[in-house]
Amino acid sequence: MRPFSLAASLALCVILAGCASKPMMQDGIRVNDPHEAQNRRVHAFNKAVDRRVIGPVANLVSDRDDAPGGAGAMDLVINAGSNLSLPGKVANSLLQGRPEPAIKNFFRFAVNTTLGIGGLMDPAGRDFGLTEHDTDFGETLAVWGVPEGAYLELPVLGPSTQRDAAGKAVDLVIDPLNHLANPGAASAAFGLRVTSKAGERARFGDTVDSVMQDSADSYAQLRLIWLMHRRHELNEGETAIDPYAEAATDDVIDPYSE
Q1: For residue 234, which of 93, 114, 138, 107 has the smallest C-alpha distance?
Q2: Within a domain: residue 241?
Q3: Contact 158/169 with Cβ under 8 angstroms?
Q4: Which residue of 45, 89, 182, 258 has the smallest Cβ count within 10 Å?
Q5: What is the DSSP secondary-structure string of 157-175?
Q6: For residues 61 and 52, what is the distance between their CA atoms, to the nearest angstrom?
Q7: Tens digit of each residue's pLDDT (9 = 90 or more) over 96-108
Q8: CA distance linking residue 67 with residue 105, whole number of Å
Q9: Shortest CA distance to 236 belongs to which of 98, 30, 28?
Q10: If pLDDT is split at 50, 70 and 90, which confidence band does 7 have?
Q11: Would you indicate the residue range of the signal peptide (predicted)?
Q12: Residue 258 domain-assigned?
């Protein structure tokens, strides 16, 4: 019961904190950002880390993937990292009272872990039509009626809200792999998931750079894009549009998502 007690405590903190501030409007989008000064300091740190560490590492991954004999290596890492996230998504779908996506993600994990050689390949999607249903505990809290709360930018993790920040903490607690695997295996799985994020950063590098490094006010633009995308995911509030429509023709991706 400890994960659920923690979830309830965090949800209560989100509710209490989210009631104390007044939202503003940015390009027709409701923005609740009472901690903007602090968030901008964190954003400056994140921007520097992206420019000096994350971006170069992502480019290195991309360069190696383009080298002779390395074609597809980045995709394999991304596939494996995505596969390891599925047990947590199964748990969240069940907590949301949505058995159908939970069952699909469970069988996707089972097929790709076995036939897909530990998730390196995707026979579940390619041969069985079992596409991934993305979810997290932030969405679980939304389904339970917990309000969004104030906008936050977290160190390294990037854009979030009070509700989603609480969700990230609980996701670590309820992930079945953290309980079923030994500590060494759980640490290796976590490392692989982090590495897969570098691969995703490389795949969408031009789009991320256009927002993070080339914007006149990258904080305001990233905040707007992230809130629009997140609310679209959760069917909350604003009109469902592609927030990257002017920046790229690729699929929408949150460069700091879990």
Answers
A1: 138
A2: no
A3: no
A4: 182
A5: TEEEEHHHHHHHHHHHHH-
A6: 15
A7: 999 999 999 999 9
A8: 33
A9: 30
A10: low
A11: 1-20
A12: no
pTM: 0.79
Among 108, 113, 112, 114, smallest CA distance to 90 is for: 108
Name, in order, each residue with C-beta under 8 angstroms of 80's C-beta and a sequence gap of 6 or more: 118, 119, 120, 192, 196
Q: Is residue 30 part of a domain?
A: yes
Domain tally, the chain: 1
Q: Using CA atoms, how far apart are residues 44 and 66, in angstroms rounded to an integer? A: 31
Per-residue pLDDT at 181 exceeds 90 = no
Domain hosting residue 221, numbered range: 2-234
Cβ neighbours for 20, distance < 8 A, ≥ 6 positions apart: 34
Average pLDDT value for residue range 156-162: 93
Structure tokens at 172: 């670590």
Q: Sorting pLDDT into bands at 50, 70 and 90, what band is 13?
A: low
Closest CA to 224 of 15, 43, 13: 43
Angle at the Cα of 19 from the Cα atoms of 145 and 5, rounded to 5 degrees:
50
pLDDT at position 133 over 50: yes
* CB atoms inside a 10 Å sphere around CB 214: 11
In a domain, 183, yes or no: yes
